[in-house]
Amino acid sequence: MLSSNSLRCLNVSETHIGLNLVYMVPGETGGTEIVARELIPVMLALAPEGMRFTAFVNREAARAGDGPWGHLLPSVTVPVHSRNRYQWVLGEQAFLPVLGARARIKLMHSLANTAPLWGPFLRVVTVHDLIYALYPETHAGNRAQGLSVLVPQAIKHADRVMADSESTRKDLLEMTSARAECVDVVPLGLGTVQRVQPVDEGELRAKFDLGQRPILLSLSAKRPHKNLLALIGALARLSLQERPILILPGYATTHEAELRDRALSLGVEQDVRFPAWLSDAELEGLWKISRVFLFPSLYEGFGMPVLEAMSRGVPVACADASSLPEVVGDAALLFDPRSEDDIAAALQRLLENPALCEQLRIRGLEQAKLFTWERMAKGVLASYARALGTPAPAPPS
């Protein structure tokens, strides 16, 4: 493990780091927003002496004023509204290099896949996944086409690239111009931890008409690569007597109609719930009463929801695909996500085998402890050191 003392030995006199958060619209940016909010305070606490930070945020984030930017570290407002994709690109590619130069930034870290392609500073970019290339239908409109240009160019012009997993690193080396010696694997920390009291089980069961049946939770965006069609198909393969209720929370997408049609055509429409929005307390309540968390996604750059489940003691079954096996280790039951029969068999094993569920519950709690924001912060700072040409510390444990 890289200690705080070791980090402080990396003293780089008055090194000014810029954090590119131009992409981040508070409350609308998903996992990349969680990463920024959780990582920044820990990284500031661990940074070596002489290293200071400035966040570059859009007008939405500046107006919200509820993040570490502006409170724990100074911020500069890039004069764009990033809900508008054109303005976001303009802010990152035209305004940010100028503002970074004016602030005398030595290294600009872009935390979410794209980055300025010019400017008088070193460039480091975190690439969470290459979903724009592998599953372009995930992104609406012209976004996939834009990312197919911006992400490879960000990688090409970067001094270092960080990937969330070995799986994403492999994708980077196979599909982009990334050089192996310049790519660092820096796993994410544990995403959403319990911070509110869960809603009472009886209240939840009444609200969502759950009766006394076992609960299967699957938490992901309703998009094709999340493979929820196959999950509904697997559910239909279970006998009515043993079938749990499947809960698929999350905002509605164009894909949701297809999911509902699938449930209807298979006769399981009464066994699936599609709550569009849940309070934090309701979600914690569902975590608490769920028999199994099932995650059939075909592709994940990291797969934070499986860690969230394991940290709460919920047995996990997930796809044997992309980054998921390296994240869950031996703490989850893996299945072939392209086989509805295999998904159904994994689910049935967990429903019928309390001993296996308990084994996975215990292993999951231990596995989740490996992924901390402190570990991630140390990995990020080590990547900075390599970009800056300072002695590279030992890899974080």
In short, what is this structure?
The protein is built from 16 helices and 13 strands. The radius of gyration is 22 Å and the shape is elongated. The chain is 42% helix and 14% strand.
Describe this structure in words.
The protein is α/β, with parallel strands linked by helices and 397 residues long. It has two domains: 203 residues, Glycogen Phosphorylase B (Rossmann fold, 3-Layer(aba) Sandwich); 168 residues, 3-Layer(aba) Sandwich (Rossmann fold), CATH 3.40.50. The strands form two sheets. The chain has a seven-stranded parallel β-sheet, with helices on both faces. Helix 12 crosses helix 15. The N terminus is likely disordered.
Q: Main beta sheet, described? A: 7 strands, parallel
Helix content: 40-55%
How many domain modules? 2
- SSE succession: HEHEHEHEEHHEHEHEHEHEHEHEHEHHH
**Quick one: how many beta strands?**
13
Strand order, main sheet: write it out.
3-2-1-4-5-6-7
Shape-level CATH architecture of the largest domain: 3-Layer(aba) Sandwich
What class do helices, strands and sheet pairing give?
Answer: alpha/beta
Mean pLDDT: 92
Proportion of strand residues: 5-15%
Give the N-to-C terminal Cα separation.
5 Å
Q: Runs with pLDDT <50, length 5+?
A: 1-12
Q: Helical element count?
A: 16
Global geometry: elongated
Give the class-level CATH name of the largest domain.
Alpha Beta
